Amino acid sequence: SLAVIIVHLEVPFSVLLAAIVLRERPGYQRWLGMLVAFVGIVLIAGQPQVRGQGLPILLTAGGAMTWAIGQLMVKRLHGAVSGLTLIGWIGVFAGPQMLAGSFLIETGQLNALGTATWVGWGTVLYLGIVMTVAGYGIWFTVLSRNPMSQVMPVLLLLPIFTIASSMLLLGERPSWFVLGGGLIVLSGVAIIVFAHKLRFRRVETNR
């Protein structure tokens, strides 16, 4: 549960980096929305166990910061490279590293290939084509064209989709406490997404 909360630090990390490096101004509405959404995530994750978890916490937070830096680098390209082209080059560099890592720390790869079921191969195809090529290709394109403070908080919806998938595919029945946390997350993200419209209406009213 603690990891769920820490991983989502990638969102405020990204917004802070964009404010420092790109001079973006998120506005108090989006900061408020992120705070509300984080409250919902804490409710979904439950009571975290922190004692004795110093190193794992630092490593997870470091991973979130690294991911945020990567998104900032994508943002700075600002349309110079398309999302699909970027995914292709990431694959060129990441593929050999993953193969080397598998060779060094894993065993039984050939046996796994020979005994894989259609579910296993379907999972590989989904992760490789639908999620990586299509999903990240679209994500990078949207990120390059919009403020990070508007795009990144959408990631806070991931626990919502996780809960919905567990209900539909695994038949799980989350508690009302978790469902309430989900509604709070949705409310926070809604504040973020529609913050610019609220500001526009306020300006029009003042005129």
Report on the architecture of this protein.
The protein has 11 helices and no strands. It is globular. The chain is 79% helix and 0% strand. It has one domain (2-206). The model has no long low-confidence stretch (mean pLDDT 80). It is mainly alpha-helical and 207 residues long. α2 (10-21) crosses α4 (54-77), α3 runs antiparallel to α10 and α4 packs across α7.
Largest sheet: none
Radius of gyration: 20 Å
Distance between the termini: 48 Å
The low-confidence parts are none
Determine the fraction of residues in helical runs and give it as a percent range. over 70%
User: How many separate structural domains?
Assistant: 1
Strand portion: under 5%
Order of helices and strands: HHHHHHHHHHH
Number of helices: 11
Total beta strand runs: 0
Form type = globular
Instruction: Label the structural class.
Output: mainly alpha
Chain-averaged pLDDT: 80
Keywords, separated by commas or semicolons:
single chain; 207 residues; mainly alpha; 11 helices
